[in-house]
Amino acid sequence: MQEIFLLEDLLDVLIDIEVMGQGHYKDLANQAGDEKLTGLFKALAKQEEAHEKLYKSLKEQYVNFTTSDVDEEYMAYLDALIKDNIDFMTQKKEVMSLEEAFDLAFRLEKDTILFLREAQRHLPKAEHDKMDGLVAQEQSHIVMLRQYRSQMI
Asked: Which residues of 91-124 are buried (b: 16+ CB within 10 A; e: fewer)?
């Protein structure tokens, strides 16, 4: 059985992740006692804001254009990803240690990569290089976070 899956759902999740990431990085920048760490978190927040704008642009451009036929198994996978992400994003984020803050940042970046790859499957090939570039940026965020984390913790 085929079901219709809208690209809009994936882009909405990506937008939500970027908004959450911006807030998280801005909070960390305000709490960081280290100048280099503050700079890192401010830079990451700015990049997340740029990504949010790009996903909104993709949504405006393609949301009415692209629907994909997907099988039940793939639909169940996407549904699980989206529900897990919604559960994660709606959990109360209380005051956390620096280690927990880094863990949250890693989770946001990794989730973004997952959703980017899924969205890419539903976008025209003309957008694939752009999506590959975004994945590379998110991967570089993970590397930067890992480097800073190993220095700080």
From this structure: eeeeeeebeebbebbeebbebbbbbbebbbebbe
Q: How far apart are CA 41 and CA 39, in angstroms?
A: 6
| 6, containing H or E segment | strand 2-6
Integer Cα distance of 14 and 95 in angstroms: 24
136-148 pLDDT, tens digit per residue, is: 999 999 999 999 8
Q: Per the structure block, which two tokens stand in for 125?
A: 């090939």
Enclosing domain of residue 28: 2-152
CATH number of the domain encompassing residue 44: 1.20.1260.10
- Is the model's pTM score more than 0.90? no
- The number of distinct structural domains making up the chain is 1
